[in-house]
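User: Please predict the structure of the protein below. I'd like the answer in structure-token form so I can feed it into my own downstream comparison script.

Assistant: Understood. Taking the following sequence of 306 residues as input:
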Amino acid sequence: MNLLVDVSVIVSTYSENKLKYVRDCVESLKGQSVMPCEIILALDPKPALVDFYRAKFSNDVRIVVSSRVGLSNARNAGVKSARGEIVAFIDDDAVADVDWIRNLADNYADPEVVGVGGYIEPVWDGGCPIWFPAELNWIVGCSYKGLPEHRAPVRNPIGCNMSFRRSVFDVVGYFRPDVGRFGRMLLAGEEPELSMRILTKFPKSRIIYEPSAVVYHRVPRDRRKLTYFVRRSFYQGISIARFMPRETTIREGLSSENDYLKYLIKVAVPSKAKDAYKLENLSQLIIMSLSTSAVLVGFLVGKLVR
């Protein structure tokens, strides 16, 4: 099958220790039912890191080096060098389903579609903790209960599995490095901030969630800890306060978060409360309450700091 568009796939990494996962990711891209026009490995500007990966991959993986460290800078370097009409992003510790590119790219037959994201299945090292509800999979960068079950418009995709038309970056700019992950602070928000700029600039455009476009994302053992869970929830609140445009009302800027909160209140909590005598359900109810509280505190802190 030939697509109407060419797709460049960007993988970003920052450590030699990620080699095994990067290789698995790249192999999954080389085995696609519809091949990308190129695979780009975007690296931090560290000479040793660049030399290491250049020695590990052949010419069918194009290496680009960002001007500054950080995920957003690496993604931006990849976008600026991409040749395809569509740029797709996948994390360095994820592998793509064989039809990933095809199922993402098919959506671009609609000229009003400017971005497409897919489903991210968590693959837990050591298994998922009994107390961790699927409604909170966003904490580990994966798709969560509460997202649409079928193809639907969304405000933004999740970074591990997303794509955009290359042309929109020329108009709205690139990922903002000051919004996302920085050092030990578990910030996020590059994807919603960019997506909101795109949808504002192109008001008739749409970003689509396509659950048939699947990637499998590794969740390392250190993310199974309750301390990580609380910190990540807190910093999510700060991130929301940071990426929401100043001129946007809370209701407009937090449309996705409001829909998600309604799902928790109307669906997730009642379904688990019905069988709250079960340890699994009771613990997950407590964890959802703890996460919501941590996000709220982080949001208030973020608004004060901002």
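That's the full token string. The mean pLDDT is 93.
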